[in-house]
Amino acid sequence: MVDSSPVVSHGPTARPARLPVPAAIREGILRGEFVPGQRLVEADLSEQFEASRAAVRSALVELATEGLVERVANRGARVRVVPLEEAIEIYEVRMVLEALCAAKAAERADDAEVAELRGIGTDMEEAVAAGEVMVYRQLNERLHRRIREMSGQRTAGSVLERLRAQSVRQQFKVATTPGRPKVSLPEHLAIIDAICRHDAVAADAALREHLRSVMDAMRSSHAG
């Protein structure tokens, strides 16, 4: 059996010990280290992650089934380019599932989780005030992840994680648009407030309104 776990590297491309090759490449795509349309050369990935060519090949097949990578005849693999129309469809599905998670989180949130969400909201306000766009983006991801976890909806969470991966570049483009954090901050605070008040209906509505706003921003960025 081929060991698909890369060895720890001390260079700039170091990855945590025992992180499987599929996860390492996936993280690279999510973090923007591999951009849409970029060729994924097995030999280069094998060297980068200090893994066998067989392990890299298997990882690319796995990521292709997730919609992150596409294999082109006689040209190998590349990071899949997700067109705007498909990205919008992905967000429409995300809207339904994330709204469900927000409603369930509102029903289930305990005092500690309420305090945690309030804390994330405060941190987001401080990040926007300080102009820390990347910090705000990280808090954004943390908030959405915690809502999924708090909801207890494992199936929805699993589907959402895959959908998020497929639309991450569109999301990154919107999140880093000048002035966008000031637009999305009140939307996030409304979601937090509804969940903390245990208002499932309001949480559902606030989450939907937020993702509609994201889709409008995506359309605008492509039109510009």
Written account of the structure:
- Strand 2 and strand 3 form a beta hairpin.
- The model is unreliable at 1-17 (pLDDT under 50).
- A 3-stranded antiparallel sheet has the order 1-3-2.
- It is globular, with a radius of gyration of 19 Å.
- Helix 1 packs across helix 3 (53-65) and helix 4 (84-108) crosses helix 6 (133-151).
- The protein folds into 2 domains: 21-79, Orthogonal Bundle (Arc Repressor Mutant, subunit A), CATH 1.10.10; 84-223, Four Helix Bundle (Hemerythrin (Met), subunit A), CATH 1.20.120.530.
- The protein contains 10 helices and 3 strands, in the order H-E-H-H-E-E-H-H-H-H-H-H-H.
- By secondary structure, the protein is mostly helical.
- InterPro entries: GntR_C, TF_FadR/GntR_C, Tscrpt_reg_HTH_GntR, WH-like_DNA-bd_sf, WH_DNA-bd_sf.
- Residues 15-82 form the HTH gntR-type domain.
- It comes from Marmoricola endophyticus.
Index terms:
224 residues, mainly alpha, Arc Repressor Mutant, subunit A, Four Helix Bundle (Hemerythrin (Met), subunit A), 2 domains, 3-stranded antiparallel β-sheet, 10 helices, 3 strands, transcription regulation, DNA binding, WH-like_DNA-bd_sf
Q: Report the span from N to C terminus.
A: 51 Å
Question: Remind me, CATH topology of the largest domain?
Answer: Four Helix Bundle (Hemerythrin (Met), subunit A)
**Widest beta sheet: strand line-up:** 1-3-2
Write the CATH homologous superfamily of the largest domain.
Answer: GntR ligand-binding domain-like
Tally of alpha and pi helices: 10
Element string (H = helix, E = strand): HEHHEEHHHHHHH
Largest β-sheet summary: 3 strands, antiparallel
Determine the mean pLDDT: 87
Helix content: 55-70%
Characterize the overall form.
globular
Task: Tell how many strands the DSSP assignment holds.
Answer: 3
- Poorly predicted regions are 1-17
Total of domains: 2
**What's the level 1 CATH class of the largest domain?**
Mainly Alpha
CATH-level-2 architecture of the largest domain: Up-down Bundle
Radius of gyration: 19 Å
Overall structural class, as computed from helix and strand content, comes to: mainly alpha
Strand content: under 5%
